[in-house]
Specification:
Number of helices: 9
Structural class: alpha/beta
Shape: globular
Low-confidence stretches: none
Helix content: 40-55%
Bound molecules: adenosine monophosphate
Largest sheet: 5 strands, parallel
Strand content: 5-15%
Strand order of the largest sheet: 2-3-1-4-8
Distance between the termini: 17 Å
Length: 217
């Protein structure tokens, strides 16, 4: 099963994708995570993307399309994947169609996580991640059980994203409205678009997502 999760920054795409990966063995393809890894490793792609990402703008389509087409062609993606953060523009959506045709595959569902934009700055400003295992937390909504210790791996090193601040969020939300939201009618016209309330508590969002994907009855 191949799925796209859509929604503005802070909608919960990453959190939900991780859970789908864990429970159903689908591969999470987060272009944001891939870019941040390229930045950490000092790769040319990371060097090109870092300033753009820190500002909250979109990395050029051409780079993103190359990145995801190489990833999708890898064998682990054959069992199904969840795209989280791609496509973000109409040209990316069109390129994805071509890539899927090339690997003899198709999209099963596109799910929009519907959220209240006014709440997103607070959501992203409190986010932090375990540097060792990648588990995501939030100062208010999902703190670690023991202060400063990861619930999953007992790691004590955490990181915060450089673009999870009010200033970059303005640009990120504008990019979503102007460039990404037009993808919704593109998929609606094909009858694959579904919507889930992303403001509900995390476990409820996950159950609704499973329902929308026909994974539970
Ligand atoms: P994310 O982790 O999905 O919020 O992505 C973080 C940042 O990476 C975005 O604000 C963009 O600068 C960049 N990025 C990630 N995915 C894409 C994409 N598909 N197209 C353009 N830029 C992207």
């Amino acid at each position: 099963m191949n799925i796209i999760l859509l929604g503005p920054p802070g909608a919960g795409k990453g959190t939900q994708a991780r859970q789908l990966e864990e429970k159903y063995g689908l591969v999470q393809l987060s272009t944001g995570d891939m870019l941040r890894a390229a930045v950490r490793k000092g790769e040319p792609l990371g060097q090109e993307a870092k300033a753009i990402m820190d500002r909250g703008a979109l990395v050029p389509d051409e780079l993103m399309i190359r990145l995801i087409s190489e990833r999708i062609a890898q064998p682990d993606c054959a069992k199904g994947f969840i795209l989280d953060g791609f496509p973000r523009t109409i040209p990316q959506a069109q390129a994805l169609d071509k890539m899927l045709l090339n690997v003899n595959s198709k999209l099963d569902a596109v799910v929009e996580l519907k959220v209240d934009e006014g709440k997103l700055v607070e959501r992203v400003a409190g986010r932090f991640t375990c540097a060792k295992c990648g588990e995501g937390y939030h100062d208010r909504f999902k703190p670690t059980r023991a202060p400063g210790v990861c619930d999953q791996c007992a790691g004590t090193d955490f990181s915060r994203r450089a673009d999870d601040n009010a200033e970059a969020m303005k640009t990120r939300l504008k990019a979503y409205r102007d460039e990404t939201a037009p993808i919704l009618p593109y998929y609606a016209a094909r009858g694959v678009l579904k919507a889930v309330d992303g403001m509900a508590p995390m476990p409820d969002v996950f159950r609704a997502l499973e329902g929308a994907l026909g994974l539970v009855v």
